[in-house]
Amino acid sequence: MRPHSGVRVTSNRAVRQAGHKIVPRDLPRDHKADLSTRVMQIIESEIDAPWLLPSVVEVRTSEHHITPVCPMVGHLAFELAQVVANLPLKISSVEPWTDTKLLVGTQEGVLFVYEAKDGNPRGNMELGVLHKTFSKRPINKLSAIEDPRYNILISLSDSTISIHNLSAQFELQSQIARGCNLYTIEKNERGLWICAAIKKKLHIFQWDNGNFVEIKELPLTANPLSLVWCGDRICVGYKKDYILMHTQTRASKELFPTGNRGVPLCTLLPDQQMLLGRDEVSIFLGHDGQPTRPHGLTWSEMPLVLGYSFPYVLAVLPKSVEIHAVSGSQNLVQTIQLKNPQFLGIKEGKSDSIYVAATNTIWRLISVPIIQQIDQLLNEKDYEQALQLSKHMTTTAELKEKKALQIKMLYAYHMFAQGQYEKAMNFFDELRIDPVLVIGLYPNLLPRDMQPKPTAYPEGSADLNGAALDRALLSLVSFLNLIRPRYLNDPRPIAQEMSEDYATVSAVSVIVDTCLLKALIKTDDRGLMDLVSKTSNRCHLKESKKVLVAAQKENDALVMLYRSKGMHREALELLTRMRLTHQLVSYLKQLGNQQFTLILEFSSHALQTAPDEALSIFTQKRDKEDELPADKCLAHIKPWAPQLIVPFLEYIIHERKDTSPDFHNELISNYLETVRALRGDFSGRSRAQSETGLLATTRKKLMAFLESSQYYTAGRMLTKFPREDLFEERAILLKKIGQHEKALFIYAHELKDYRLAEEYCTKNYNPDKEEASEVFLTLMKVYLKPAEKDRASGGVIEPTIKPALELLNKHYKRMNVTKALELLPPTTPIRQLYPVLEAVVRDSTTEKRNDQVVKNLLKSENRETREALIRARSRAIHINEERMCPVCSKRLGPNVFACYPNNVVTHYACCKDKFTCPVTGRSFRDNN
């Protein structure tokens, strides 16, 4: 049989049809020079649309016919070579043996071995060996196991699996599984197994010392029509559905129906995947039976056979072979028209060992080099598939990476041109592409001198406007936010460039942040404020100011940009000029002591127009080092907003915990001035609790502060209070300077509030302090012998006997009763003193009896202690010649010894711890 030769014809057009059989007339065999021209003329004459001609057309020539091989879609992945024609016997199976050998089984049981001519794996083939007596029945399946551990050929013929030596003679070694109609093989580093289907059972055989030994039998529910071994499971295809059966647990799992035609097809894929057929669709599943992809492969017709040859899935159809990519888009890559193909032989891991057979014809599919396939895909702009193929290039890692980067670059720009902006940005980031090139895809973002020409991009610059521009800008924002940290440490003189004209800027960090600002203006106000508020931003000030003003964002974004650059005066002047008091106050609140001069300068207007809000400038909580000087703030507030003095002092004292007497004194003075303004002429003796409105609130605050503060000058403050009014406040001040008698006089005679007088004594009584231990007696004196005159009438104040007696009866224990009785008038009836005298006598008697009891108890304790001492001193220790030391086990003898309280006696030298018994371990420390 004469092998066929082939030539290539190139053109700039693409063919979307396939299967043209061209029969040239009067074409001399030796006239090969004009072949290309002639073929193109013939094709152009038969195709209505000549612009659809392919860029690569494969042409097979012989003296009989010319067969162009071109893809329906996608690219040219395989070249076709007819290796066997007009075989007189009917082919029943094909199996690649090595790179250069092919096994062909026939219906008549004859085995053919074809070999590549001159040992070239991609060259022509010729018949090598013929085995006429290989089998008496059709050879339905062949499996060559080249592994040197086994080196066998497995065949299925006459419903029996035969094991042959994989050599030139193929000697029969053994036969197993009689009645078998199909089998599947599992081979890994642990061993070799065969799973054979015999009626409604699966029989599993394991290779053991040169033979297959049956190790397991698994029951089925019906006769299987297909088998594939996947990990620790076996996928079984019935006429109606598929199941997964676990080889260890025997558990089975139903998958899905086989379809209307009931033809199950199974094939294994990498990454623990398998492909199962359902009519014209093939579905991807994992070895656990779970779908691994949302979409399957769709064929033009229902496949007869499925196979996998990295990186493609091949399906034999009734009139063609279709090729799909497993990864990437999984689109149909190529269709090869053949006459009645039926069988497919693929050698695992050998992309050039792919054979398709009809009844008496065999074709070989020779893979086009990966680099050429990639170039085709790039011409077709199928970058996704090109990128997948680049992973499988058999070149150096450096060249592979370089090619992948080239494809990704083209792919990224292509996706951008197609409106897939987010995906494009992901590629740009992965490629670490110069951001200037990415920004250049957008109009009016780069400085004038840096704007690339449209020809700088593979597909030119995209025409962005309207909704497309908005989506593209959103993707650009995400991209620039992601990559901007890489350029923040730009070593170039950034400050100088930011002060120059934007058209001449070259620092990438400045360009990135300025372009990000421009994009955010149109897409995301919140993101814009976040950018301009960062002190790390590198936005070009002049350019940014121009675009922000144009976008009417100077009152917020421009102000924040000034602040991030430390240009506080410019920001404050802008806010003042625009009369944005609220924003001005908010800005000033964020400044600290270092900008105190600016705070004073620009807060004046706010103190006049919005004093309550302006107060927050000075009461804003700041870090310790940024706190504003309180005295200077107070001095600044007084002339502009005197009504804020009290709130500010309250903040300084209560929030900042300032202990300066000046502040405390001034707060009291301001409270007093407010009360004076509200009370008028101070006529009357009204109590604080009887006041209403602001006056009541102010007096309560004044009294509370006088009571709680420890830092004001009480004596100085007392001179400011009137003697004819505000007695409650004066009483507190008198207490502060220790003048209890005068304070009590106010409660007892000015206010006539005996309850407050008693509470005063209770709060201030302290028996350990001389001035406070006699406070109750002082109140008795105030009640009975008042020294002052009545301020209201100017007359003598009469003694108040009743409250004095009540105080004595209730608190006699806290005063010297004798002195208290001396203060009473001689005319006081004795019956009024009876309760206190009775209580004093009773307490004295009780105290005396208690003392006698204690005295007697102490005497008894002393007596017992003396008796115990006498017993201890009189205790005798008997030492005889037989007594041994329990520590050293030697006789005690006349030596010095030690005796523990538990009567353990040892040599004195053996007494290491006088508080712990060396025999029992008992501790006698602290009499325990």
Automatic annotation (TrEMBL):
Organism of this sequence: Planoprotostelium fungivorum
Main location: membrane
InterPro entries to which the protein is assigned, alphabetical: CHCR (IPR055358), Clathrin_H-chain/VPS_repeat (IPR000547), CNH_dom (IPR001180), Vam6/VPS39/TRAP1 (IPR032914), VPS39/TGF_beta_rcpt-assoc_1 (IPR019452), VPS39/TGFA1_Znf (IPR019453), WD40_repeat_dom_sf (IPR036322)
Compartment(s): Endomembrane system
Similarity comment: family membership: Belongs to the VAM6/VPS39 family.
Residue stretches making up the CNH domain: 88-351
GO cellular component term of the entry, any: cytoplasm
Keyword Cytoplasm appears in the UniProt entry: no
SMART domains cross-referenced by the UniProt entry: CNH (SM00036)
Protein name according to UniProt: CNH domain-containing protein
Keyword set, alphabetical order: Membrane
PROSITE patterns: CHCR, CNH
CHCR repeats by residue range: 618-788
Membrane-related topology note: Peripheral membrane protein
